[in-house]
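User: I'm curious whether this sequence folds into something compact or stays loose and floppy. Could you predict its structure so I can see for myself?
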Amino acid sequence: MTSPFDAAGARTSRACAQCGTELAARALACPACHTLVHADRLKLVAARAEQATREGRLHDARAAWDEALALLPADSQQHAAISARVAELAKRITDASDLGDGAPKPAHEGPWYKRWAGGIGALLLLVLTKGKFLLLGLTKLPTFASMFAFFGVYWAAFGWPLALGLVVSIYIHEMGHVYAIVRLGGKPSAPMFIPGIGAFVSYSRRITDPREDAYVGLAGPIWGAGAGLAAFGIAKWTGADIWYAIAALTGMLNLFNLLPAFGLDGSHGFTALSRAQRLAVVAAMGAALWLSGFKLIALLIAVGLWRIVQREQGPGDARTLANFLGLIAVLSWMATRHAL
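Assistant: Here's the prediction. I'll summarize afterward.
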């Protein structure tokens, strides 16, 4: 990085290469002729981004275009054009058919009930197929220590079986966020537990695209739902009431996280939804309340209606809507399947 000051502390100046106008220290474009200060570097970055896109390295392309945005005035046409490219790349990265390696995959075919059966089967196998990844967080001392403290508090209150089930379900929920962030090219922290509150995951890169924000936000409840369904399956197999209780508690916790406010997962999910899609989610919440009688859903409905009337609305995303509707159905059923 160069400094606008010389060795004696006197301020130096820069001049526009095109017209000679003196430029401010952090100027990105000439105020007189509007020549871009970093034009040569921008050409190299753009070439790198285009090459990465052609080769299917979407994360690298996204990083290159982000670098280019930092070199452009925010009100310039180039900034707007590259922002559109970034949004398109974010859409492709978070798209289920383009998430893994950037290569387009064929659309699913066949009867709807076969597609639903496949999705449910994938959800049930989620915990098993990601076993190695789930163990990764347990190798981090802060995660293990905070988890043990969390377990101790709830052991004293509810006994060790329910406390252990609660800790494991929350851990799986948080590792869902970790997995989603990693798939988007981020570097998340390991989960940290806070007794009496829950757990959280932090990450350095700020997510600005609503689709990515929703993808990361809803990944936690999706993995949590998988953990709850696994517990319910064990309950059906063993007949042990404790597993029914763990499944119901997991459903309740993840359903509460769908609250579209206060930075909870549902709030991140709502950022990608249009007003019409938010209305569809609230309607689904109403149906779930009517069918299950679970009063917590009334709070979700009230906050969801408040988000509908806000000026801020998302661009609309069918995948996020489908995830939201599926989670409402599964979690409301799970939360009330067996009373605690």
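Summary: Residues 1-12, 96-124 have pLDDT under 50 and may be disordered. The longest strand covers residues 192-194.
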